[in-house]
Amino acid sequence: MHHRMNSWHYKLTLILLIIFVASCVPKKQLSYFNDIDELDPGINPRTQKRIMPFDKLYIKVLSIDPQTSQIFNATEEIRYGGYGGGMGSIIGYLVDEKGNINFPFVGEINVGNMTTSEASLKIQKELSVYVSQTSVVVKFVDNQVTIMGEVTRQGVYGFSQDKLTIYEALGLGGGITRYGDRKKVILVRNEGEKIMHYRLNLSDSKISSRDHYYVYPNDVIIVEPLKAISTSYSNVTFTTILSTVTTLIAVLYFYLGVR
Question: Within 13 Å, how many C-alpha atoms sit on residue 164's CB side?
Fold first, then answer.
């Protein structure tokens, strides 16, 4: 009987030890920069995003003639309304499915597949037929990025920065949880008529000098769970499971002790 009790004690202790080890996530899997000592300074000149259908653009006409500026910019505000997002009252022009915007007095201007700099020059050239000595500012507005998976707060977040890094984007969602796999972050991006999927390794310090380090408007970022355990699979937390198992083992100990 005594030998049987010792055998049960050994087995139950071993089960508890296995559960404890399984619940531990290695520090290396929770770290972003595991190779930072090997990192060399790098440069990542971001490729400018090109204007796509259904983008929203901020367009402002600047002129040495106050009346000219007032006419174009006031007309914008009346016809298109304002957008928020930390940039004050922003005027938004919606790009249609053919890449056109409908600009006051000029009519349709095709800016599809252009950078904002290229679009500024084209609009300025179109305006020169009507007014001289103008300058045009074009920016993206109503920028949004969707954060999903093992992050603190999933959701759709707006941003106004010209350059938003993958780390800054994840920061909008409160960062990756302890059960998120930093080596398996998926970036979903619309590129023309294609939907592309890119797998990013955020534990690689050299990511800052690689493609897709910067986030574009309407990108979707998905953080996959670690293989060991994920809080996303069930509403029952691991703490609850461990507590239940521990209670069960305690009851078994008591039962065997009584017998």
Answer: 21
Q: Could you tell me if residue 120 is inside a domain? A: yes
Flag whether 64 is in a domain. yes
Confirm whether 212 is domain-assigned. yes
Report the phi/psi class of residue 226: left, alpha or beta, with left for phi > 0 and alpha for psi in -120 to 50: beta
Query: Counting runs of H as helices and runs of E as strands, what totals does the chain give?
Result: 6, 14
Helix (H) or strand (E) holding 127: helix 116-127
| Same domain (yes/no): 84, 130 | yes
- In this prediction, residue 256 carries a pLDDT of 56
Q: Which pLDDT value is given to residue 99? A: 94
Q: Is residue 95 part of a domain?
A: yes
Long-range contacts of 155-159 (CB under 8 A, 24+ apart): 158/85, 158/86, 159/85
**Angstrom distance (rounded) from CA 54 to CA 96:** 6
Range of the domain at 111: 56-140
CATH number of the domain within which 202 lies: 3.10.560.10
As averages over each run of 10 residues, the pLDDT of the chain (259 residues) reads 55 58 50 47 62 87 78 52 41 87 90 93 90 86 91 92 88 93 92 87 83 89 81 50 64 58
pLDDT at 19: 56
Q: Which helix (H) or strand (E) holds 116?
A: helix 116-127
62 lies in the same domain as 135: yes
Q: What is the pTM of this model?
A: 0.59
Pair 200, 185: CB distance under 8 Å: yes
Into how many domains does the chain fold?
2
